[in-house]
Write a sequence for this structure.
C-alpha cells in the first residue's frame, strides 16, 4: 500500500513538472505575440494589416501552444495563459508607446481569454489525443473562430480593410477542418458533427464581436 501511494505521488509530481514547461512557453510566447501585435499595428502593409487586429491569429497561436501540453487540463491552462498574456503584452507595449488601452477593451478581451482560452486548449488536446467526437469538437472551436471572423471582416469591415485577408482566413479555416477530417475524424456522423459545430461557432462569432464593440464603447 505504501509503495502504491508513493508511486501515485511521484506520478502526480511528474505530471506537474511535465506541465510546467508548456505553461511557461505559453506565457512567454503570449507576451511576445501581444507585444508584436501592438508594434505591428500601423506598420504592416495594407494587404496583411488586419493580421495585427485579428483575434483569429491569437486563437490559432493559443491552440498551437496548447498542443505542447501533456493533458487536457494543462492544455486549458496553456490556452488561457497564452491569450491572457497576449493581452498583457499588447496593453503594456501600447502603454509604453503612449497609447493607453481603454477599460472596455481590457474587460472584453480578458473575458474572451477566460472563456475561449480553456476551450481552445482542451480542443487542441482532444484533437491530438482523442478519437471521433472529441476530436471533432476540438478542431471545430478553432475553425469556427477563423471562419466566423472572416465572415465578420467581409460583412462589417470590408470597406476599411483588405477583403483578401478575410477570404484567406476563411479558406484557411475550411482547409483546416478538411485536413482534420482526413487525418483524425472517422465516419460521416463525426464529420457532420464537426461541420455543424464549426458553423454554430462561426455564426455566433460576428454577433459576439458586435456586442463586444458596444461594450468597448460604453466603458471608458
Amino acid at each position: 500500500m505504501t509503495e502504491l501511494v508513493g508511486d501515485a505521488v511521484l506520478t502526480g509530481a511528474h505530471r506537474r513538472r511535465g506541465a510546467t514547461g508548456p505553461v511557461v512557453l505559453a506565457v512567454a510566447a503570449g507576451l511576445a505575440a501581444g507585444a508584436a501585435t501592438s508594434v505591428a499595428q500601423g506598420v504592416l502593409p495594407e494587404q496583411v494589416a488586419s493580421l495585427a487586429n485579428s483575434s483569429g491569429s491569437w486563437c490559432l497561436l493559443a491552440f498551437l501552444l496548447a498542443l505542447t501540453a501533456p493533458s487536457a487540463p494543462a492544455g486549458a491552462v496553456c490556452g488561457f495563459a497564452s491569450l491572457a498574456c497576449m493581452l498583457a503584452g499588447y496593453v503594456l507595449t501600447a502603454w509604453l508607446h503612449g497609447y493607453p488601452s481603454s477599460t472596455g477593451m481590457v474587460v472584453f478581451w480578458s473575458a474572451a481569454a477566460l472563456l475561449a482560452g480553456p476551450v481552445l486548449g482542451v480542443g487542441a488536446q482532444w484533437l491530438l489525443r482523442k478519437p471521433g467526437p472529441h476530436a471533432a469538437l476540438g478542431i471545430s472551436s478553432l475553425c469556427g473562430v477563423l471562419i466566423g471572423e472572416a465572415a465578420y471582416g467581409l460583412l462589417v469591415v470590408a470597406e476599411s480593410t483588405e477583403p483578401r485577408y478575410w477570404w484567406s482566413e476563411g479558406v484557411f479555416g475550411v482547409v483546416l477542418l478538411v485536413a482534420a477530417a482526413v487525418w483524425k475524424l472517422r465516419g460521416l456522423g463525426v464529420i457532420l458533427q464537426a461541420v455543424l459545430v464549426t458553423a454554430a461557432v462561426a455564426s455566433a462569432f460576428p454577433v459576439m464581436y458586435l456586442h463586444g464593440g458596444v461594450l468597448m464603447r460604453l466603458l471608458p
The first helix runs from residue 2 to 40. Residues 123 and 138 are 3 Å apart (CA to CA). The chain has seven helices and no strands.
